[in-house]
Amino acid sequence: MSSCLALAACGGAPPNPLDGETLWTNPSSPAARAQQALAENGDDSTAAAVADIASVPTATWLGGEDDTRAKASKITSAAEERGEVPVLVAYNLPERDCGQYSSGGAASPEEYREWTRELVAGIGDRPAVVVLEPDAIAHALDGCDGSPEAMERYPLLAEAVAAYAEAPNALVYIDAGNASWIEDTGKLAGALRDSGVEDAAGFALNVSNFEPTDTSYDYGTSVSDELGGETHFVIDTSRNGGPVEAGDWCNPMSARLGEEPTTATDRPLLDALLWVKQPGDSDGTCNGGPPAGDWWQEYADTLLEG
């Protein structure tokens, strides 16, 4: 990835700044570790099935670890050695997930700023895609139970976007929820603008959700139109291969794996289809699942059906 992929360095992104790039597959992902454990236990058939997840480029989530800089450096260095681009998820905003299954985040705005600086330093000048704070904007627009911290998110996100300018080959996509969440695309576009989207590579849709790709693309195009018609976006397709009812967002058993990641989308404004959510990781303690982010083999088996 050349330095000209950085927006600030080139005065504007090319039609698709990721076109032709190969996405990095983490050999230590939750699925890869599960596959290894299954094989060691002699469950070769299940291990072979899980390989259909472990072998696919999937994002690595970072959220409040003490060694964020070291982790980001290790990932981006490993990917750079292969000439590939890793996908990172920055997930540490104060009042993350509004106290729901994935609650947590930095204790204060200043702690979040310091954490962001550590993540940026870990990326350095190596290529990376960064999906910034899943659900943060949509939760804020949706009220987030009236949390004052949520309503102060936009300037903090804008500061984070500006901080990533120190990582000249990082492409930042601000999360914008999903197609069935915020119906008012004009309002969403305003929140994205307040959050610094004009200085980012664009926005991300459908993270950890289940909306069909065509639905997400149409929605993303509408949001981009509200921003002037030139803002790019990426779509999470990790679990959108099955018919999931709107609102059934926590470990729905009808979900299936979606289209595999690609940077060759052949669609205007769509930079990539990504697996942002790690298929097989629980959404939370619902439908019999373990805590959010934990590997759940039963759910991985369900996603692999059909």
Question: What key attributes describe this structure?
Answer:
single chain, alpha/beta, globular, 35% helix, disordered N terminus, 306 residues
Class of secondary structure makeup:
alpha/beta
Number-wise, the strands total 7
Q: What is the global morphology?
A: globular
In round numbers, the mean pLDDT is: 92
Q: How much β-strand is present in the residues?
A: 5-15%
Low-pLDDT stretches: 2-13
What's the Cα radius of gyration? 18 Å
Percentage of helical residues?
25-40%
Q: What is the N-to-C order of secondary-structure elements (H for helix, E for strand)?
A: HHHEHEHEHHHEHEHEEH
Total of DSSP H or I helical runs spanning 4+ residues:
11
What is the straight-line distance between the termini? 36 Å
Largest sheet: 7 strands, parallel
Sequence of strands across the biggest β-sheet: 1-2-3-4-5-6-7
Can you walk me through this structure?
The protein has 306 residues and is an alpha/beta fold. It is built from eleven helices and seven strands. A seven-stranded parallel sheet has the order 1-2-3-4-5-6-7. Helix 5 (109-123) packs parallel to helix 8 (153-163). The longest helix is centred in the middle third of the chain and has 15 residues, at 109-123. It is globular and about 50 Å long. The two termini are 36 Å apart.
